[in-house]
Each structure stands twice: as C-alpha cells, then as structure tokens.
UniProtKB/TrEMBL annotation:
Residues 8-17 have a biased composition (Basic and acidic residues). One of its GO terms (molecular function) is ATP binding. The lineage of its organism: Eukaryota, Sar, Stramenopiles, Ochrophyta, Bacillariophyta. Gene3D superfamilies: EF-hand, Transferase(Phosphotransferase) domain 1. Residues 109-125 have a biased composition (Low complexity). ATP binds at residue 79. It holds the Pfam family EF-hand_7. This is Calmodulin. It comes from Corethron hystrix. It comes from the Eukaryota. Belongs to the protein kinase superfamily. Ser/Thr protein kinase family. CDPK subfamily. Its cofactor is Mg(2+).
C-alpha cells in the first residue's frame, strides 16, 4: 500500500500561489543530502505509520510515538520474493559461525560478515561493535517494531509568521547531520496537516535527571551540548531556545547521550549580521534578546551557561518565571549579568572549573562570552581532565585509609567521565578493519555509495555501538565533520606501522567525501563503515530501498533517482547509477538486484 497521488484542490497553500516550484520543502530544490529526509506531499502519514501512544498535545497539534504499519509499502515489497530473502539469510548464517568482538580499541569492530556483506537480523552475531547484544523487534516479513516520534501540526489556524517558523524548523532539521542533534526522517503533508517523523528519544529531558546530576554528569552533558551547538554555529544557525525541555537523553541508560531538539525558533544568522526578533524561554533567554537588542549565535552560550548553573545547584541565577519580570532587583541583576552562588555550591564541592565555565558564559557583553569552540575546548582540556584527576585522587585516598572493601563508602564512578569525547579521544586507536572499510567505500560506484548513505540515514542509530564515539573522537577540532587533517592525525600511529603515506590518506579521504565538499559528514562516515560493523542488515537494506523507491512502485527508476538526487542530478550520473544497479539490464532496479548489489 503506497501513498495516494490525489490532490486536494481546496487545500490552503501556505507556500504561495504557485505550485511546488515555490515550495521550500520540495525535494528538487535541495541536494541529495538534504532530500534524504523524505518530503511526501499529498500523503497522510497513517498510510505508513500506526500511532502507538500520544505523549503530548497543544493548540496546534500533538506529539506521538509511532511505528511503521505491517501493511505499509515496504512490507509489500519485502513479500514479493520472500524466498530470495530467506535464501540470503540462510547463506549468511551458514557463513558466520561466530563473532569477533574486541572492543578494547575504539577502532575495533564486531565484524559478523564473511563473504556476504548483508547481516542477518536474527543470527547469533547480532551484537553492537562493543559486543553488546542488540535487540531487534522487527519481524522478518511484518511491520517494524522500531519506534519513532511524530510531530503533528495543524496548519489551518497558523498565521503566516507561525507557518514560516515551522517551515524554517523543517528546513534546518533536513540540513543537520550530527550525533547530538535529533534526526528528521520524513515529512508528510496532506490537507491542512504536516507530520514530522523523527528519531525517538526515550530517556527524558534534562530536568527529569536533575536530582541525579553530579558535576561529572553536568560536564559531560555540557560537552555534548556544546558539540551540537558548535556544529550548528559553524553553519551560522542559532538554536535560540535552549532549555531543559529541549535537551533530551536518547535512551534510559545511565550513560545515555543527549540530543538537541525543537528548532522552531532557530535562525540563520550570518557572522556579519545580527537579529533582533525576541524569542526564547524566560529562565534561559539572554539579556540582549529579551531587551530587543540585536543578537548573534552568542545568545546560545548564555542559555547554556544558565543551564549549567541550574544543573549544578538546582538554583536559578537570574529569572525563573514570568513573574520575575516585575522584580526590579532581579531584572537589574539579569541585565547587568550579576549573580551569586549560594552555600549550595560549597556544600556540593563544585569545582572552580565549573564556576569558570559559567562565568565566561554569563557575560553581559556577547562578544566577551565563549565561542562554542572555546567553550568546548575548555570543557575537554580543563574541566573534564580535572574531574578525572579528582576522581583518581579520591579513589587512591579511599584505598589508603578505608576499612575493608565491604564497608567502604562509595566513590564517584569514573564511568560517566570515561564516556566523554575528551577521554575517548586520548585512547583513539585505528585498526586495519576500519582502514580497509574506508578504502573499500572509496572504490565503490556512485550508486552503491548512494545506497549506503541512504541506509546510514534511515537505519536505527541505536545499533551503532561505538561508531558515534569513534566519529567524534576522530573529529579533533570539534566541527561535527571530518577534515583531511583529522584523518591524518587519527591515522598517524597506524600509518607509521603500515607504510600508509599522506597521499594514501588523501586518496582515502577523497573516496569518503562523496559530495566533494572538502569534509566527511557523519552520515558519510557511517556509510563507509556500515558493512564491517554488521549494519547492512535485511531490514536496513529494505528501508534504504523504500527511500529510493520514492513512488512505491517496487522498482527504482530514473525518475526516482532524479527526485532523490535533487540539485545534484545530471543525466550522466543517472545513467552511470542505473548501469551499476540494473543487473538485469531492464532500465530499472528491482529489489532482487538491489539486494545482490549489497552482497558484494
């Protein structure tokens, strides 16, 4: 069952009088990378998804947890030749009798493939790269058990300004590609509703964990928050509404990573241009924003500083709610960036490094505040190393003077700090499997690269193991992308032992940089290593096919490739891709040929 092609002529067009040529969501006006979050016009999301539970409602819509329907388009495709899928699964199981799960090195893999590049989702090797057993509730031929977040917005009561803000949020989300920013998968639009299908973060927001916030946890949370912001700010995008509710934990685990969400107020602000539109939340808003003065991306730094203050002390440095706007003393302290630290800070033994971080964030003059790069560098080279040293000293002290182990007082665990990029980067080691995977990706044709990138986009990021940490560790300058100098630095030790020259690394980098942008994005990195990490599973391959078969015909056609490539389209590229994938020389790529391509 696919999406209908009917058009409602009574639909109010918020994008202008003209048709999709004026529509900022239209795939044809964007590059391949930006079209990956699928825009499906005249399609109701319920044709593809079932609502599991509504988790929030407002005047303009609701937020739900959803899953793909059993009889959605991709399941129909998967049922066309079930015997071929079963055969491939059996072949893979026969070829894989065990797994190698050495995670002592960040670059290590749990490679579960031998001969075939496609991994079964039901075999004994279904583990993440760090050896942890993966759970996959997908049935072989039924609907997926994977859950998504769905944001439903009713546009009929929106003002033009509100609609512009919402379209701006979608446009910005389609551009983002970072481990600490929530991912947008699909956009549906029909009648007077728009649905956003996004990554589901199950771990609650920052406020839900505030009672368990040691300084170590705060430092790691701020490191991850700043990593996301640094990526945004490098593209001149300002979040403009950082608050507890807009920073989510990706799952319920104790060491879960955080993700930035809700970009409805985000804005593109050039380095030479300021904005003066008032927006944000009262307790984290920067003075220049609330007072209606021109502001830049530095207002995010103020908001992050306030969040750090609240997380460390459970106190508010300036304003807490709208009532405080009438308090002249609080307003004066806010405008002049004057705050005090109560006895709580002494009682909790909060370090001078935490106080220094806050002091540099909460500067009245935006130009005197940290940049995201400066803040992240301070967290990684000063604050976190100090906390680790403090932990080691405390542990040593406890060892020297404590009673028998069964009676010892608990020591602050170091595991939280060990999850920081700062410490993982120090232990970065790249092995031969990773190098081989990056070289192999560079040698693939354009179509297979496109398929792997699409697979990397659509797959469930919970199955990545340590790949996210590996990417961030190689990103030595915290840009959210990899540059040639990052790759050379990461491979420095490996190159000296394996006769890998600078020219070899440069060639490898060019192969990874599929869009010739001069940088390797997160999704390109995941695509390059997907095969050795066992991520090319039947479910992931099916999802990638579904994305490329954008008219749900059961085949990938020339028109499909034109639609997906967007502004990257050219006739010569399309012909090369069809020649590469069309194993039967029929002019189209069916699912059987698609699967065979991914085997080799």
């Amino acid at each position: 069952m696919g999406c209908s092609n009917s058009k409602n002529t009574d639909e109010l067009d918020h994008f202008g009088a003209q048709e999709d040529s004026e529509n900022p969501l239209d795939n044809t006006v964007h590059t391949f990378r930006k079209t990956l979050p699928w825009y499906r016009k005249d399609c109701h999301f319920s044709e593809i998804y079932d609502v599991v539970r509504v988790i929030g409602q407002g005047s303009m819509g609701e937020v739900s947890i959803v899953r793909k329907r059993v009889n959605s388009s991709i399941d129909t495709i998967k049922k066309k030749k079930p015997e071929s899928l079963e055969l491939l699964n059996r072949q893979h199981i026969q070829r894989t009798s065990g797994c190698s799960n050495d995670a002592s090195t960040i670059g290590s893999t749990s490679s579960c493939s031998s001969g075939s590049s496609i991994s079964s989702t039901t075999d004994a090797c279904n583990k993440t790269a760090d050896g942890v057993k993966k759970t996959d509730s997908s049935s072989p031929l039924g609907g997926s058990g994977r859950l998504y977040a769905c944001k439903t917005v009713m546009t009929n009561n929106m003002t033009d300004a509100e609609m512009d803000e919402f379209i701006n949020e979608i446009d910005i989300l389609r551009e983002f590609d970072h481990p600490n920013i929530v991912q947008l998968f699909e956009v549906y639009r029909k009648d007077r509703k728009i649905w956003l299908i996004m990554e589901l973060c199950k771990g609650g927001d920052l406020e839900s964990r505030i009672s368990n916030m040691s300084e170590e946890r705060v430092a790691v949370a701020m490191e991850q928050m700043m990593a996301g912001l640094a990526y945004m700010h490098s593209g001149n995008v300002c979040h403009s509404d950082l608050k507890m509710e807009n920073i989510m934990y990706e799952d319920t685990s104790d060491d879960a990573a955080i993700k930035l969400i809700d970009f409805g107020l985000s804005q593109r602000i050039s380095k030479d241009q300021a904005n003066n539109r008032a927006c944000g939340t009262i307790y984290t808003v920067a003075p220049e924003v609330l007072m209606g003065h021109p502001y830049t991306v530095q207002n995010d730094i103020w908001s992050a500083g306030v969040l750090a203050f609240v997380l460390l002390s459970e106190e508010y440095p300036f304003l807490k709610n709208m009532k405080d706007l009438a308090d002249e003393k609080k307003m004066a302290n806010f405008v002049y960036a004057r705050y005090t630290m109560s006895d709580t800070w002494k009682e909790r033994k909060i370090s001078s490094f935490a106080k220094d971080y806050i002091a540099k964030s909460l500067q009245r003059d935006p130009g005197s505040r940290w940049t995201t790069k400066e803040a992240l560098d301070f967290i990684q080279t000063k604050w976190i190393p100090y906390l680790m040293k403090r932990h080691d000293n405390m542990y040593t002290s406890e060892e020297n003077r404590s009673p028998p182990s069964s009676e010892r007082a608990p020591v602050i665990p170091s595991t939280i700090l060990e999850n920081s990029t700062a410490l993982k980067r120090k232990h970065l080691r790249v092995n031969s499997n990773l190098v081989a995977a990056m070289k192999q990706f560079g040698e693939y044709g354009r179509f297979k690269k496109m398929v792997l990138i699409t697979l990397a986009h659509t797959m469930d990021k919970r199955s990545l193991g340590n790949l996210k940490e590996l990417f961030l560790s190689i990103d030595s300058e915290n840009t959210g992308t990899l540059h040639l100098r990052d790759l050379k630095l990461a491979l420095q030790e490996y190159a000296s032992k394996h006769d890998l020259t600078d020219d070899d690394i440069a060639s490898m980098f060019v192969g990874l940089d599929s869009d010739q942008s001069g940088k390797v994005r997160y999704i390109e990195f995941l695509a390059a290593v997907a095969e050795i990490y066992g991520l090319v599973t039947m479910d992931n391959v099916a999802d990638a096919f579904d994305r490329l078969d954008c008219d749900n015909s059961g085949f990938i056609t020339k028109e499909n490739l034109i639609s997906v490539l967007g502004t990257d389209y050219c006739d010569d590229l399309i012909l090369k891709m069809l020649k590469e994938g069309d194993l039967g020389k029929t002019g189209i790529i069916d699912y059987s040929a698609f699967v065979k391509l991914m085997q080799y």
